[in-house]
């Protein structure tokens, strides 16, 4: 590594004028030698003691380089920025090499603190990226300190194993999109200077994008009219004029303007695309939604419901074809747009491209096919929900029917014991004397009944039987 | 029954549902004489005992009600209902008697007719449809329960002659349990050859009286002494105590009485040793642990 010699002034503090001299920078140290040989302000400082280096911006009053150490700093004023930059880069390289990348708290002051490995030239973006990675991940930072700064690994070796980390995050850089601001368009107030009747609207690309998203009719008009019929400037002038008319609640003037200028009327009329969209949405509402359930919190009769935008209190003229958006309508639309978020990534520069991109993103997935699926789903859901219990068989759990081959078994398992307990010894008796067949048995039974009929009622219990000792006296 | 709710019942008013066994095989077996119960007490004599008993039940309390149900081998049916008489109805004892006999005759004819098509296996042990008549009786009782807040105290008296029908086991046990649930005591008087395990259980479970009269020619006296009193008065009488019924189970496989064994978790069949498959319902069991007393399916009965 070579050395640099540059004429410079050493300033002990910023307030004092510098002492002219020569700054000589080598790999290990820098040496300042004043022109005045009597001066004691000769510096010989090793780079190791330097923590950070600061510098003034290109084009600022003085070309300064400040090398900070523990106690303070060495401030050098260069004659030109180019000289300063050469020194700055040199210091940067050396510092990077010496202390590697140790992200410090005041990194905003060290935008140029780079840590290129020898022989490897990194773009500032890549460098920044690495520093950012180290800052975000304390573990990585610790490792970096441990290996690179102690010289075990070189910078490139350290990152070689973490290539995926570098790549991943490179992609991720723009992953998270910024959404719309949640402030409403109503906040874009026209500025009036009290002297003339001039009213100034200021539109930024951001605002224009939001206007397109929230007001599809304006978006469509823009695509149709610009730049075929009118310039972009005319278009926005017209829009602002319409907005202004609307805002001032000057319905008569607005109507007159609308009658004159059909393009302007577009902005004042009800937004038919929006209305379509809403109708579409209503059609897709869950058919089982119970509106009556919300009747308790009846917001329709709340005071603020139906309030016109911008605090207008005049009664809504239903016949007027001009748009009368209520505050809650506007709020809802705005909320929907903010929630939808930005569907595309376009630099908010050219209004035209923004408008086209928005149109593309809206077309996106075919609504028709989506609707078909949706309506089928809705139908099924409605069927499910409106099921009438009385018209269905009872829900039965599947069960295995109990199949008992022979219930006799149960009986047999008990009978033996039961009879044994009673001392019944007639078990072998049952098969005797059943010598009649079925018909004969019935005939006999019939005969018995007729006998009973004929004989009538006799003495039921014969007296000799009744007197037997063991009949009912010893039952217990 | 239409006039029942208007009556003023007290707790000594009874509704007695009598189940009369009209098993032709049993009663015909007495034709040959010998020591068969049906020989000592042929059906005509049996009716001579039963019909006066029914009349005396009606005599006990003006509001008492008697229902007679015949149990055949093919069907069961209501024979007589004292509540159906109406105001001028058959109060006369002989009229009641002839009505019962007439209806009984019709019933036997019907029973025979129904049995014509399906000739059942001949043999000694064709049993009566006890489960059917028990169910009829319980249905009648349920109807009475629903007739009003106050109703006569129902009970069921089974006059059983034929042996138990093992094939009716499940149905009979279900009837017994439903009687137990509706607090209807089942009294049983067995006039047959052997004791009835069914009725023994029925009376035991429902708190009725089980009796097998040793002297059949004095049947009326048994009936009058044991089964005539209403449930309220029973508390003050010395009635036949239920003999210590041994409800210990015996296993289905060897008919051995066991204190501990395996029970099918599906159909409650009992086995003395582990089975791979239940012989009664066909459920397949998992491998059982070796020791029977560590299995969850074991039963303990003293």
UniProtKB/TrEMBL annotation, chain A:
Main localization (coarse): nucleus
Any one GO biological process: nucleotide-excision repair
Cited SUPFAM superfamilies: BSD domain-like, PH domain-like
Keyword tags: Nucleus, Repeat, Transcription, Transcription regulation
Keyword Nucleus: yes
Domain BSD: 126-170, 195-247
GO CC annotations on file: transcription factor TFIIH core complex
UniProt keyword Nucleus present: yes
Location relative to the cell: Nucleus
Pfam families: BSD, PH_TFIIH
Domain of life of the organism encoding this protein: Eukaryota
Family: Belongs to the TFB1 family.
Name of the molecule in the record: Putative RNA polymerase II transcription factor B subunit 1-1
Native source organism of the sequence: Dendrobium catenatum
From TrEMBL, chain B:
Cellular component terms per the entry's GO annotation: transcription factor TFIIH core complex; transcription factor TFIIH holo complex
Location within or outside the cell: Nucleus
Keyword Ribonucleoprotein: no
Keyword annotations from UniProtKB, A to Z: DNA damage, DNA repair, Metal-binding, Nucleus, Transcription, Transcription regulation, Zinc, Zinc-finger
Biological process (GO), any one: nucleotide-excision repair
Subcellular location, principal: nucleus
Presence of keyword Zinc-finger: yes
Gene3D superfamilies named in the record: von Willebrand factor, type A domain (3.40.50.410)
InterPro entries associated with the record: TFIIH_Tfb4/GTF2H3, vWFA_dom_sf
A GO MF term: zinc ion binding
Subunit structure of this chain's protein: Component of the 7-subunit TFIIH core complex composed of XPB, XPD, TFB1/GTF2H1, GTF2H2/P44, TFB4/GTF2H3, TFB2/GTF2H4 and TFB5/GTF2H5, which is active in NER. The core complex associates with the 3-subunit CDK-activating kinase (CAK) module composed of CYCH1/cyclin H1, CDKD and MAT1/At4g30820 to form the 10-subunit holoenzyme (holo-TFIIH) active in transcription.
Similarity annotation: Belongs to the TFB4 family.
Role according to the record: Component of the general transcription and DNA repair factor IIH (TFIIH) core complex, which is involved in general and transcription-coupled nucleotide excision repair (NER) of damaged DNA and, when complexed to CAK, in RNA transcription by RNA polymerase II. In NER, TFIIH acts by opening DNA around the lesion to allow the excision of the damaged oligonucleotide and its replacement by a new DNA fragment. In transcription, TFIIH has an essential role in transcription initiation.
Protein name: General transcription and DNA repair factor IIH subunit TFB4
Species in which this protein is naturally found: Dendrobium catenatum
């Amino acid at each position: 590594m070579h050395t640099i010699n540059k004429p410079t002034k050493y300033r002990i503090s910023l307030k004092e004028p510098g002492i002219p001299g020569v700054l000589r920078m080598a790999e290990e140290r820098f040496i300042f030698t004043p022109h005045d040989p009597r001066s004691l302000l000769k510096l010989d400082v090793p780079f190791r003691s330097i923590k950070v280096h600061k510098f003034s911006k290109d084009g600022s009053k003085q070309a300064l380089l400040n090398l900070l150490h523990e106690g303070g700093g060495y401030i050098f004023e260069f004659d030109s920025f180019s000289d300063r930059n050469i020194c700055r880069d040199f210091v940067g390289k050396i510092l990077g090499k010496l202390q590697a990348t140790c992200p410090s708290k005041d990194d905003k002051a060290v935008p140029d603190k780079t840590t290129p490995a020898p022989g490897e030239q990194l773009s500032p973006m890549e460098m920044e990226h690495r520093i950012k990675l180290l800052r975000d991940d304390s573990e990585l930072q610790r490792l970096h300190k441990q290996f690179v700064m102690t010289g075990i690994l070189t910078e490139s070796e350290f990152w070689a194993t973490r290539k995926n980390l570098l790549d991943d995050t490179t992609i991720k850089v723009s992953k998270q999109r910024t959404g719309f601001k949640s402030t409403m368009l109503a906040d874009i107030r026209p500025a009036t200077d009290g002297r003339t009747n001039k009213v100034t609207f200021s539109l930024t690309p951001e605002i224009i994008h939001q206007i397109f998203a929230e007001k599809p009719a304006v978006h469509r008009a823009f695509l149709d009219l610009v730049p075929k019929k009118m310039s972009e400037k005319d278009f926005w002038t017209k829009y602002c004029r319409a907005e202004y008319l609307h805002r001032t609640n000057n319905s008569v003037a607005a109507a007159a303007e609308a009658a004159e200028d059909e393009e302007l009327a577009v902005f004042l009329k009800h937004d038919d695309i929006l209305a379509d969209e809403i109708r579409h949405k209503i059609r897709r509402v869950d058919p089982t939604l119970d509106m009556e359930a919300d009747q308790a919190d009846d917001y329709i009769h709340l005071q603020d419901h139906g309030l016109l935008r911008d605090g207008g209190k005049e009664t809504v003229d239903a016949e007027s074809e001009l748009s009368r958006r209520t505050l809650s309508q506007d709020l809802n639309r705005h909320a929907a747009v903010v929630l939808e978020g930005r569907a595309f990534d376009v630099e908010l520069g050219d209004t035209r491209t923004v408008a086209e991109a928005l149109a593309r993103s809206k077309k996106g997935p075919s609504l028709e096919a989506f609707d078909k699926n949706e309506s089928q789903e809705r139908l099924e859901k409605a069927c499910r929900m409106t099921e009438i219990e009385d018209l269905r068989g009872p829900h039965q759990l599947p069960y295995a029917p109990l199949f008992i081959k022979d219930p006799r078994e149960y009986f047999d398992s008990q009978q033996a014991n039961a009879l044994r307990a009673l001392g019944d010894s007639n078990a072998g008796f049952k098969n005797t004397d059943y010598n009649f067949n079925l018909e004969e048995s019935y005939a006999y039974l019939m005969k018995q009944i007729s006998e009973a009929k004929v004989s009538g009622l006799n003495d039921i219990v014969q007296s000799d039987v009744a007197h037997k000792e063991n009949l009912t006296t010893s039952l217990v | 029954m239409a006039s029942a709710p208007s009556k003023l019942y007290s707790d000594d008013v009874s509704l007695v549902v009598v189940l009369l066994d009209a098993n032709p095989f049993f009663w015909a077996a007495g034709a040959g004489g010998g020591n068969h119960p049906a020989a000592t007490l042929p059906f005509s004599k049996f009716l001579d005992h039963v019909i006066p008993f029914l009349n005396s039940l009606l005599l006990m309390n003006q509001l008492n009600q008697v229902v007679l149900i015949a149990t055949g081998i093919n069907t069961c049916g209501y024979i007589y209902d004292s509540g159906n008489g109406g105001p001028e109805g058959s109060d006369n004892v002989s009229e009641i008697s002839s009505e019962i006999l007439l209806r009984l005759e019709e019933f036997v004819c019907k029973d025979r007719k129904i049995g014509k098509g399906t000739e059942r296996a001949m043999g000694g042990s064709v049993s009566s449809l006890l489960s059917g008549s028990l169910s009829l009786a319980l249905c009648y009782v349920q109807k009475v329960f629903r007739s009003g807040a106050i109703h006569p105290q129902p009970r069921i008296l089974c006059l059983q002659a034929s042996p138990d029908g093992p094939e009716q086991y499940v149905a009979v046990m279900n009837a017994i349990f439903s009687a137990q649930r509706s607090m209807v005591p089942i009294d049983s008087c067995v006039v047959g050859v052997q004791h009835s395990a069914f009725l023994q259980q029925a009376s035991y479970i429902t708190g009725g009286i089980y009796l097998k009269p040793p002297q059949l020619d004095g049947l009326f006296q048994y009936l009058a002494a044991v089964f005539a009193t209403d449930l309220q008065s029973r508390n003050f009488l010395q009635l036949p105590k239920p003999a210590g019924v041994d409800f210990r189970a015996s296993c289905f496989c060897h008919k051995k009485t066991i204190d501990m064994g395996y029970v099918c978790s599906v159909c409650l069949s009992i086995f003395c040793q582990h089975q791979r498959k239940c012989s009664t319902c066909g459920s397949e069991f998992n491998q059982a642990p070796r020791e029977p007393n560590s299995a969850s399916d074991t039963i303990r009965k003293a």
